[in-house]
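Page 42, continued from yesterday. The earlier attempt failed because a stray header line got pasted into the input along with the sequence. Redoing it now with the clean sequence only.
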Amino acid sequence: MRPHAQPLLLLVLGTAVLRISLFSDVCLRYVKESAQPFLIATGFLLAALGLVGVARDVVPRVRKRVAGKGAEELAPSGAGGPAPRAGAPQDVPGHEGDGEGGTHGEEHGHDHSRGPRVAWLLLPPALLLLLLAPPALGSYTASRDQPQLVQDYGRFDPLPAAGRPVPLSLTELVARLQQDGSGSLKGRTLVVQGFVTPVRDPAGDKAGTWRLTRLLVSCCAADSQSLSVTVHGAQAPPADAWVRVTGTWRPGGTFGTTSASLALDAASVTRVPDPANPYLDKAPAL
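This time it went through. Structure tokens are written below.
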């Protein structure tokens, strides 16, 4: 990589990071919300280093080239060119500036001022983030992931009064089904939200059920784990569509234990906009 290209690459990288972290929330497709300030700081640092490099390396090169062209236009034309002034150093083989002896940076067979060519591999992802940011993980990842076991709840918050819908995060729904021995959700109208993961049988045909899924992360999308419940009684929306499901627990197994069925009988399914933070599992607002 040529020296003048290095600061330009840093500037592109910094701009791409700022584009997804400062000027939008696209970075939340890839990392937790707590990491966003660090991405913003990194973007500013990369962009600042790139600007300093441009001011130090690129601008002087451009000015020198423009000045050289101007001098060539003003110099008298002649077959032999302008005569060297007295006392001017001449090119000596093996000295700096000679075409055969090479510069000091090339006396070992390579130019130490150039960066490694592998640095160009940073350019495609930077341009991708600038022009077309990849989407968040979805049903493709969830269908190939092992379901996550939720942590033990020491206590559960009181539910709304009987007869009112119960909005729950998918995490709390699974925890109550597997850990709440009082059976508090039996017969209650539940409201949960997530994205659609199709269910296919071994033959590859769609089965009569589908899954409502959330992906949870500890740090970034690379460590994501899925959490899902099976939905019965409603036609499957398109894969990866975000929906709100209103329904009741579908009895199966023993409530309050890990054998309890993670399934709902849907009364209604409503499409909702994709959330800004797809990995933040919280109860839907009613």
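Notes: The chain has two domains: 5-73+90-131, 139-271.
Reminder to self: strip header lines before submitting.
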